[in-house]
Amino acid sequence: KFFSSHFIIQSIPYIGPIIAKVIVWPFFIAINAIAYLVTLTFIRIRGVKEVANAKLLTTVFLIGILLGFILGRVVKII
């Protein structure tokens, strides 16, 4: 539902892409903040191995979102 509304907003000429960027950047910041809090919690509870797994999972998730965004732009151009 989020991505379909994001697409509708982005299709508005001139101002749509600006609004879409304003919506997407806080999402990335929120994901990074959650990852930071999860990391601190895991360090206190379990140890370093689980922290490494959590950071790796979060990094892969963010890279996937970024690559999807870039590929979406490239396919849109073609």
Low-confidence stretches: none
Strand % is: under 5%
Give the number of domains.
1
Tell me the number of helical segments per DSSP (H or I, 4 or more residues long): 3
Beta strands, count: 0
The N- and C-terminal alpha carbons lie at a distance of: 25 Å
Order of helices and strands: HHH
- CA radius of gyration: 16 Å
Portion of residues within helices:
over 70%
Mean pLDDT: 73
How would a crystallographer describe the biggest sheet?
Answer: none
Inertia-based shape: elongated
Query: From the helix content, strand content and strand pairing, which structural class follows?
Result: mainly alpha
List the helices and strands and how they pair.
Layout (H helix, E strand, L loop, with lengths): L1 H9 L5 H30 L2 H30 L1
Helix pairs in contact: 1-2, 2-3
Can you walk through the features of this model?
With 78 residues, the protein is mainly α. It contains three helices and no strands. α1 packs antiparallel against α2 and α2 packs antiparallel against α3 (48-77). The mean pLDDT is 73. The chain crosses the membrane at residues 23-43, 55-75. Keywords: Membrane, Transmembrane, Transmembrane helix.
How would you briefly describe this protein structure?
This protein has helices at residues 2-10, 16-45, 48-77.
Keywords:
78 residues, membrane, 0% strand, 88% helix, transmembrane, transmembrane helix, 3 helices
